[in-house]
Design brief:
CATH topology of the largest domain: Jelly Rolls
Number of strands: 28
Distance between the termini: 44 Å
Structural class: mainly beta
CATH architecture of the largest domain: Sandwich
Shape: globular
Strand order of the largest sheet: 4-11-10-6-8
CATH class of the largest domain: Mainly Beta
């Protein structure tokens, strides 16, 4: 892993067919290997067996080693990836010096505030290891689209650069019952009139609001079906539930690209018989499709464990799609209009009534910049 780190952190950007710099990590990874740099990396990101075991435990796998689980984004690789950035997230990395020296950090991910602490690392001798933390907070980056950039430590021996890719997800608040309310805060980025518009609630039923599928799965068996969001969709909620409380079902959500190739956009794989995943629409400046993300989706259910004494698990898989108008019952947000001061949180309350208990619903509260908050009920 230290050798891999040396290759990655000293890499240079590729160029595209026109000769322009192409720094997208999804296209080039860390970049192209530069032989004259790779033998003097300055710092390396080490990782061993315990790191891998903690990573696997964090994914929900039982390695049988009693290794403490870590968030998969905290695996000590020479890159940083966060697939679900909600509000903010802090990741941890450690670096080992190849030679003594001082390094100062610079980091940039357009649309995301990146705070690195400490910002200066001092190494008195080779082999010394230091730990740092990186906090990511979405600002203007669009939902459901990866924001990319680099984090670089600069020292006398050169630069140590790693690629970064984080995907902001909409803030989600949850409530239960046929009626109720939830209170939450949003922080505006500009001063002036602030509006909040509620859409929904949408249940998982009917040809225009989503779909419901039921079935039975044996251990490790899976079931999948395709969903096409209707024009104007604000948010989608994918759920799977079982009446067997001690069963373990996993949920995976895929999106098809223009070439009909499916890619994983989210999953919920906890040790539970009830899983849920939400996709929200991007900001208005990012898409005119009106759908959460252009393209069809597929919902996949996997039986990761039956309840004791059973050989199969019954399930109900559902998808709810929020439209700008319509919805079930009453769904409102207060205040719907107020004056905002940039950087000062605004307290909002989402209220609902007239829905069925234990039926999953999803709603959307949209703000002036086209982004918003997902509200899930039950």
């Amino acid at each position: 892993m230290m050798i891999k780190s040396a290759l990655m952190t000293t890499a240079a950007d590729l160029v595209d067919g026109t000769g322009r710099r192409a720094s997208d990590p999804f296209a080039q990874g860390a970049g192209r290997v530069v032989p004259e740099r790779m033998f003097a990396p300055g710092l390396v990101y080490p990782a061993g067996q315990r790191d891998w075991l903690g990573y696997l435990e964090g994914l929900g796998m039982d390695t049988g080693t009693r290794t403490k689980a870590i968030d998969p984004s905290d695996y000590n690789s020479a890159s940083i990836a966060i697939g679900r950035l909600v509000v903010k997230q802090t990741v941890t990395r450690r670096v080992t010096a190849v030679a003594a020296g001082r390094y100062r950090v610079s980091a940039s991910v357009p649309g995301v505030d990146v705070d690195v602490h400490p910002s200066v690392l001092d190494f008195s001798h080779a082999g010394q290891t230091r730990t740092f933390r990186v906090t990511f907070t979405p600002t203007t980056a669009s939902y459901e689209k990866a924001a990319t950039g680099f984090l670089t430590w600069k020292g006398r021996r050169g630069a140590v650069r790693i690629p970064v890719a984080v995907t902001p997800r909409a803030l989600e608040v949850a409530g239960t019952g046929p009626s109720g309310r939830v209170r939450f805060h949003v922080t505006p980025g500009a001063t002036g009139p602030f509006t909040a518009v509620a859409s929904g609630l949408s249940p998982a039923s009917g040809p225009t609001t989503g779909s419901t599928q039921t079935g039975s799965l044996t251990l490790n068996q899976s079931f999948a079906y395709r969903i096409r969001p209707t024009p104007g969709t604000k948010a989608a909620r994918f759920t799977v539930r079982s009446s067997e409380a001690k069963a373990n079902l996993d949920l995976y959500v895929y999106q098809y690209d223009a070439n009909a190739v499916a890619r994983l956009v989210g999953k919920s794989t906890g040790p539970s018989s009830s899983e849920s995943f939400v996709v929200a629409k991007p900001s208005s400046s990012d898409s005119t499709s009106g759908s959460p993300v252009p393209g069809d989706y597929a919902l996949q259910v996997v039986n990761a464990g039956n309840a004791p004494g059973t050989t199969a698990t019954l399930f109900t898989a559902q998808t709810g799609l929020v439209q700008a108008t319509g919805g079930v019952g009453s769904f409102t947000v207060t205040p719907s209009q107020t004056e905002a001061t940039a950087g000062t949180p605004i307290a909002l309350t989402a209220s609902w009534s007239g829905v069925q208990e234990e039926v999953p619903y999803v709603g959307w509260i949209e703000y002036p910049n086209g982004q918003g908050t997902v509200v899930t009920v039950n």
